[in-house]
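User: Quick sanity check before I run a bigger batch. Here is a single chain. Can you write out its predicted 3D structure?
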Amino acid sequence: MNDRLAALILRIDTIATEILEPLRLKTINEAALLELYEVLDEICLLIGHERQIDRELASNLFLIYSQLVTQSNYVYDKSLFVPHIGKLQGVIRKLFGGTLQKV
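Assistant: Done. Predicted structure follows.
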């Protein structure tokens, strides 16, 4: 893994905290999510067609995605959550090349 990719993955770890803390209060940190998407765009460019994805990156993305879905189940108005769930699903599909299926 190159140094730039390592720095981006570390940045995602920090952003994850900025996203997850407000989620516990059923609120969305728009600025942190927008920053996450920017970092993920750069990561997509860096890793291209890699066959292996960093485990820490995968775990952070899964944590953010699963918490968005979980917390959206506890609010009446899901309109703030749905766009971010869909966008994160798309990025995860792009990075990992598979499809996400709800269980």
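Residues 99-103 have pLDDT under 50 and may be disordered.

User: Great, the batch can go ahead then.
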